[in-house]
């Protein structure tokens, strides 16, 4: 089972590698931006359509 | 940019200000302005592309469930819920931006707080246009959230403790609006405590730790007293405050981390990389520590505003940005020269954009009442320092210039005019007005400082710190003077006062007895009897509105606490009491008097045509009003045309206006807030004149049910001020703007052609001198021609960016209802002599 930890978009916290940020590029009809969401390193990435292997 | 100065000049000559601004602003500001998702509702509905954000309600609900079995007192659970949102919500950084922070998970998302009111939650379920895709799946999430918070929301909790009779009358929507919640409305801030650069969150946390330790030691010394009992609650409150501040610091550091990740992993442009590292440094510094630069100061302010809105729906944005950010501007731009004027302008323009995009899901009546905007975010500029000297600075000018470049309709500015304001500042203000922004509105600082001392007993140094708590009402930014919530305010639909005189208090629209059961109108044999009934109805309506607000204010500290707002308020940090606790507030309450002038015009019409000239009997008039003037057109026109109207310097009607205000002022001193202070009235309207069009029945000024009401405050009825601008000012100057009420809104339309060039400036300046000499406290201007407005009605796509002054706020003309548009066009364009 792939996990967030194996994903290119996962950036672990320095003081707690079990947690991190999922950082993605978004282009909406008006603007482009980077977004970050807190995720667990071991979260199941099988159903994530944004998963990109490191 | 490849655009010649002539091109900009040509556009300005054609008064195409939007296109000129687009060419004048920097590439960064242009991108950010166009990147902005406009959030104001149109016709009560959110514009296409905006969606209700479900991330926050899900986070709140999951934390609330987790804490159900925790032994924590409610205030700590609540603080933990806020912290959970800040720690876990999605954050983003827009390309080219230098300031960060948004309430929602994505720029086009409107945040929804399900903890406030079940009635709001039910609106979400029934708002198909704003539910994100996939609708069915998300409806399931919404239903789960709504059912969890049923019976647990703030309003559900306080309603059983309110007087049912008063509550039903308020909730009928006939005589007023708003719900008395501490987490819904207009939250002033103790800026003198938290924004002066003396302290930031870490300093407050250290202070809270000290107080908790002291209280803990005191509570465990030998002895048992009432004081020790109170300490347990205080320690909990201090702990809750600390949780919110620590969460705020962590949240800012999430942005710092994201900025570094982008800079180090994605960004290829060297300049942008430097900017991202600057963002990172800024967010590592503030809000933990005091700001050192303009960017840090603006970012700090933005975080405070966002955290406060993480805690409550704030319908207003009390602020004094030039006063609090000005010192950083001066230091960096004028002394150290580490920032150019252009760079400062970019930051200032972006600050306006960041504020303009903030959005919180609100009930439909509120969206209808505030057409085209998110809330009345009237930022206060100018004014005086605590020692009475001129407070204007470089930031005042930067804000006025930035407003013309980014042309957002919200926030808007209100300028505290005083005799020491320099000509260069007046010229910048005039440019904003001439370029059709509809702001700043002009406030008479000496009058309003005296007014604050007169009505609420604020000491002069505190009164001088005042900012607008909503569109119009001044409130100090000090420890005991600032007001933490909308509960400083009750909103009255005053046209009901005169309507109820004819119905003995029965409301035919909502079909219930709301007003006093005064004698049948037909029975009145003198104007004095008639006016007595008016006074009784006025007192009844004001009392019904004020009592629930007072009651809710008493309930707020325990039932609907605000730990974050308390944490940035000296009085709460010091006392351990919730910021809404009336015992630590001086009181600065006011009754917003919507649809006020209809009373004076109606009373004058009755006095003249019924009692003086005896052309009609009271029975004739009562019958005509009950029939909504149907079949009585000739009589109606008599009441429109042959009765004197306010705003024409006619003592007949102007003296009636004064009688009404004096009666209201007398009663305002009998009405007391829980802090023991007065409840003066403040005539103004937002767009209540349109909202109430179908709620107010026929009136003796000739108005029919459904017709728009007057545009508000003490503005004459549209088109009824026939004697020119000086007559309007003279009528308004008969009011004592210090003692007859808390403030008085005056709308004026000026001709853009007349205001062109230096001559235009001189004309406006001499108008302003007359206004100041006559002692009025407020005036605001629309300066867009009928031709432009009619073209915008015909071809809205082409005129997307035309801004107008609606009432206490500005909006894009195309975003307001046709009825409001027509009402603005109808207002008399005053030619200045
Ligand atoms: S994209 Fe999906 S798999 Fe990758 S880190 Fe984000 S949530 Fe995890």
In short:
The complex is a heterodimer of chains A (54) and B (833). Chain A is mainly beta and 54 residues long. Chain A contains no helices and three strands.
Describe the structure.
The complex is a heterodimer of chains A (54) and B (833). With 54 residues, chain A is mainly β. Chain A contains no helices and three strands. Chain B is an alpha/beta fold. Chain B is 50% helix and 8% strand. Chain B is built from 34 helices and 21 strands. In chain B, helix 32 links the parallel strand 17 (747-750) and strand 18. The longest helix of chain B is centred in the N-terminal third of the chain and has 40 residues, at 226-265. The mean pLDDT of chain B is 94. The chains are: A mainly beta (54), B alpha/beta (833). Iron/sulfur cluster is lined by residues 4, 7, 9-10, 22, 39, 43, 45, 48, 50-51 of chain A.
> Termini distance of chain A?
15 Å
> Biggest β-sheet of chain B, characterized?
6 strands, mixed
Strand content of chain B: 5-15%
Number of helices of chain B: 34
Distance between the termini of chain B: 41 Å
The coarse silhouette of chain A is globular
Adjacency order of strands in the biggest sheet of chain A: 1-2-3
Radius of gyration of chain B: 26 Å
Which ligands appear in the coordinates?
Answer: iron/sulfur cluster
Classify the oligomer. heterodimer
Identify the strand order in the major beta sheet of chain B: 7-8-9-18-17-21
* Succession of helices and strands of chain A: EEE
The total of helices of chain A stands at 0
Chart the SSEs and their pairings.
The complex is a heterodimer of chains A (54) and B (833).
Chain A (H helix, E strand, L loop, with lengths): L9 E4 L2 E12 L4 E9 L14
Antiparallel strand pairs in A: 1-2, 2-3
Chain B lengths: L4 H9 L3 H8 L2 H9 L15 E3 L1 H13 L6 H15 L2 E4 L14 E3 L6 H8 L9 H15 L4 H5 L5 H8 L4 E2 L6 E2 L5 H4 L6 H19 L6 H40 L4 H16 L8 H18 L1 E2 L6 H15 L5 H16 L7 H6 L8 E5 L11 H13 L5 E6 L5 H12 L6 E4 H12 L3 H4 L3 E2 L5 E2 L13 E5 L1 H9 L2 E2 L4 E2 L13 H33 L3 H5 L2 H6 L14 E5 L2 H16 L5 H9 L6 H9 L9 H18 L12 E3 L4 H4 L33 H9 L13 E4 L6 H17 L4 E5 L3 H9 L8 E3 L4 E3 L5 H9 L2 E2 L3
Parallel strand pairs in B: 1-3, 5-6, 7-8, 8-9, 12-15, 15-16, 17-18, 17-21
Antiparallel strand pairs in B: 4-12, 9-18, 10-11, 13-14, 19-20
């Amino acid at each position: 089972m792939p996990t967030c930890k194996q994903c290119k978009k996962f950036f672990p916290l320095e003081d707690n590698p079990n947690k991190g940020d999922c950082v993605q590029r978004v282009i909406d009809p008006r603007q482009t931006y980077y977004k970050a969401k807190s995720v667990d390193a071991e979260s199941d990435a099988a159903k994530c359509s944004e998963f990109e292997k490191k | 940019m490849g655009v010649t100065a002539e091109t900009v000049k040509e556009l300005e000559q054609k008064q195409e200000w939007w296109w000129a601004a687009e060419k004048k602003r920097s590439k960064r500001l242009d991108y950010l302005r166009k990147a902005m998702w406009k959030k104001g509702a149109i016709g009560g509905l959110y514009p296409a592309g905006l969606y209700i954000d479900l991330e926050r309600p899900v986070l709140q609900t999951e934390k609330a469930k987790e804490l159900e079995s925790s032994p924590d007192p409610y205030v700590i659970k609540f603080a933990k819920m806020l912290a959970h949102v800040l720690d876990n919500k999605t954050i983003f950084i827009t390309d080219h931006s230098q300031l960060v922070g948004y309430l929602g998970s994505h720029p086009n998302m409107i945040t929804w707080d399900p903890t406030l009111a079940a009635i709001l939650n039910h609106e979400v379920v029934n708002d198909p246009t704003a539910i994100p895709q996939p609708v069915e799946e998300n409806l399931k999430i919404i239903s789960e959230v709504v059912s969890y918070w049923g019976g647990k929301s703030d309003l559900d909790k306080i309603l059983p403790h309110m007087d049912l009779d008063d509550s039903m009358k308020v909730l009928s929507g006939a005589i007023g609006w708003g719900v008395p919640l501490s987490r819904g409305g207009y939250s002033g801030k103790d800026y003198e405590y938290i924004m002066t650069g003396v302290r930031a969150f870490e300093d407050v946390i250290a202070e809270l730790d000290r107080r908790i330790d002291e209280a803990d030691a005191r509570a465990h010394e030998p002895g048992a007293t009432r004081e020790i009992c109170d300490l347990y609650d205080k320690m909990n409150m201090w702990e809750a405050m600390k949780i919110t501040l620590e969460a705020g610091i962590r949240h800012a550091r999430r942005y710092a981390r994201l900025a570094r990740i982008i800079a180090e992993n994605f960004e290829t442009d060297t300049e942008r990389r430097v900017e991202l590292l600057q963002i990172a440094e800024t967010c590592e510094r503030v809000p933990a520590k005091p700001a050192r630069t303009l960017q840090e100061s603006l970012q700090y302010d933005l975080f405070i505003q966002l955290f406060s809105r993480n805690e409550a729906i704030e319908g207003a944005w009390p602020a004094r940005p030039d006063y609090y950010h000005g010192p950083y501007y001066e230091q960096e731009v004028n002394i150290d020269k580490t920032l150019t004027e252009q760079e400062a302008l970019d930051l200032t323009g972006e600050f306006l954009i960041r504020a303009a995009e903030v959005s919180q899901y609100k009930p439909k009546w509120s969206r209808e009442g505030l057409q085209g905007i998110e809330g009345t975010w009237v930022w206060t500029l100018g004014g005086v320092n605590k020692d009475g000297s001129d407070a204007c600075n470089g930031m005042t000018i930067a804000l006025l210039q930035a407003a013309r470049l980014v042309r957002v309709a919200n926030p808007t500015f209100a300028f505290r005019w005083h005799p020491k304001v320099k000509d260069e500042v007046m010229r910048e203000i005039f440019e904003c007005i001439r370029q059709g922004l509809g702001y700043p509105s002009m406030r008479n600082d000496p009058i309003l400082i005296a007014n604050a001392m007169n009505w609420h007993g604020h000491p002069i140094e505190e009164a001088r710190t005042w900012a607008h708590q909503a569109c119009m009402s001044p409130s100090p930014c000090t420890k005991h003077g600032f007001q933490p919530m909308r509960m400083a305010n009750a909103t009255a639909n005053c046209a009901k006062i005169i309507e109820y005189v004819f119905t003995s208090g029965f409301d035919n629209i909502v079909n219930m007895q709301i007003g006093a059961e005064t004698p049948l109108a037909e029975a009145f044999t003198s104007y004095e009897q008639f006016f007595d009934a008016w006074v009784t109805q006025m007192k009844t309506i004001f009392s019904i509105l004020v009592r629930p607000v007072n009651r809710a204010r008493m309930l707020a500290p325990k039932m609907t606490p605000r730990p974050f707002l308390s944490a940035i308020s000296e009085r709460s940090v010091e006392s351990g009491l919730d910021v809404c606790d009336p015992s630590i507030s001086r009181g600065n309450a006011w009754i917003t008097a919507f649809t006020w002038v209809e009373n004076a015009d109606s009373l004058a019409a009755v006095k003249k045509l019924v009692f003086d000239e005896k052309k009609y009997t009271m029975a004739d008039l009562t019958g005509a009003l009950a029939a909504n003037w149907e079949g009585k057109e000739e009589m109606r026109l008599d009441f429109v045309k042959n009765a004197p109207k306010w705003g024409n310097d006619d003592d007949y009607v102007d003296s009636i206006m004064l009688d009404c205000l004096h009666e209201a002022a007398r009663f305002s001193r009998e009405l007391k807030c829980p802090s023991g202070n007065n409840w003066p009235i403040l005539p103004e309207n937002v767009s209540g004149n349109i909202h109430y069009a179908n709620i107010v029945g026929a009136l003796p000024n000739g108005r029919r049910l459904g017709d728009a009401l007057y545009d508000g405050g003490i503005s004459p009825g549209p088109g009824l001020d026939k004697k020119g601008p000086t007559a309007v000012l003279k009528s308004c100057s008969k009011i004592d703007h210090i003692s007859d009420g808390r403030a008085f809104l005056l709308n004026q339309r000026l001709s853009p052609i007349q205001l062109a060039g230096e001559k235009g400036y001189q004309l406006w300046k001499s108008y302003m001198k007359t206004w100041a000499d006559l002692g009025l406290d407020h005036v605001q201007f629309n300066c867009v021609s009928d031709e432009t407005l009619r073209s915008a009605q015909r071809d809205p796509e082409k005129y997307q960016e035309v801004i107008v002054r609606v009432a206490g706020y500005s909006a894009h003309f195309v975003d307001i209802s046709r009825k409001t548009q027509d009402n603005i066009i109808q207002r008399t364009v005053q030619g200045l002599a």
